[in-house]
Amino acid sequence: MIDALHTRLSRAAITMQADECALSHIDLGSGAPLLLIHGGHGGWYHWLKNIEALCAHSRVIAPDLPGFGRSTGPVSNFSLQVAASELFALLDSLGIGTIDVAAFSFGACIGAQMAVQMPHRVRSLAVVNPAGMGPVSARLADIQHEAARVAKSHGLEQGVRISLEQIMLCDARLVTEDLCRLTADHVRATRVQTRAIARTHPTRALFARVRAPMWQALGAQDPHQHHELDQRARYVQSISECNTSSICHAAHWLQFEAAPWFNDNLTAFLDRVRARQRTPSSIDTGLQT
Questions:
Q1: Is residue 163 within 8 Å of residue 135, measured between CB atoms?
Q2: What is the pLDDT of residues 178-190, one digit of tens each?
Q3: 87 close to 110: Cβ distance less than 8 angstroms
Q4: Residue 135 has what DSSP assignment?
Q5: Where are the domains of the chain?
Q6: How crowded is the C-beta side of 92, counted as CA atoms within 13 Å?
Q7: Are 133 and 103 in contact (CB under 8 A)?
Q8: Across residues 128-157, what is the average pLDDT?
Q9: CB–CB of 228/217 below 8 Å?
Q10: CA-closest candidate to residue 37, choices 95, 86, 93, 96
Q11: Cα gap 57→34, rounded to integer Å
């Protein structure tokens, strides 16, 4: 199933020159544009279960970031500023001015940078289990070390399986051979380092400067988040009364594991923002996939 879905969407991928690199991306649907930013060691495939559903509501732009997937690396050293600038350059080439942004994990750092760098162009920001919010839990560090050890001793796919089963997804039935293979392929294709940037914890300070309405989706089973789950939910809400946080029964790759829930809630958030209706400040808990 995953291979068939990825193959179908891959047929829509095209490459366009930005400023410093050529960005492979998907451009599907019509209506107000929505930019999807993937996470570390990823590509647009992080949105496999979301793109087609969101296309019924928006024009969806889903790129491989500079140095990821089929995009070329930037001439300059990779940074949040360079990545944001390259995405704006892609949007310029596509004739897109104002954009809604949804960003996952490390991509949330870049989405927030875009909203700070050119606030007049980012109408809203939705973030999924953002990275760079603060120190990680000891459990997460242990899992990452074990995954790296197994990858070296037993092959990348086996290390990826540990990451998928213990970090990315809490439903082990979703961890299939084709998903392990697809994820490993993208790890191999990654040519820039993001973990060092995330470990400087830039996201909390960037969020404080975002003036666009924000929606944050957190996974209750995500080892990146659950040690500070309520604090991180409330932090985003404390920035503005227009901001909301929702907590879902999912792990890190929430938009994959809880795709129907995520697609419905993101669409509702975009509807409110685009209608210029103020969203109430609330935390939703106990939502099931």
A1: no
A2: 999 999 999 999 9
A3: yes
A4: P
A5: 2-137+191-287
A6: 10
A7: no
A8: 94
A9: no
A10: 86
A11: 9
Token representation of residue 14: 């095209």
Total Cβ atoms within 10 A of residue 263 = 19
Regarding beta strands 244-248 and 214-219, do their DSSP bridges make them parallel or antiparallel, or are they unpaired?
Answer: parallel
Read off the DSSP letter of residue 102. Answer: E
Terminal Cα distance for the chain, rounded? 19
The residue with tokens 């400067």 is 209
Inter-residue contact 72 to 221 (CB < 8 Å): no
Correct CATH for 2-137+191-287 of 3.30.70.20, 3.40.50.300, 3.40.50.1000, 3.40.50.1820: 3.40.50.1820
Per the prediction, the chain carries an average pLDDT of 93
pLDDT tens digit sequence for 42-98: 999 999 999 999 999 999 999 999 999 999 998 889 999 999 999 999 999 999 999
- The SS3 call for residue 62 is strand
26, 51 Cβ separation under 8 angstroms: yes
Query: Which pTM value belongs to this model?
Result: 0.94
DSSP state of 28: E
Q: In terms of DSSP bridges, do strands 33-37 and 14-17 run parallel, antiparallel, or are they unpaired?
A: unpaired
Beta strand 14-17 with 22-28: parallel, antiparallel or unpaired?
antiparallel
Compute, in degrees rounded to 10, the torsion defined by CA atoms 101, 34, 169, 65. Answer: -70
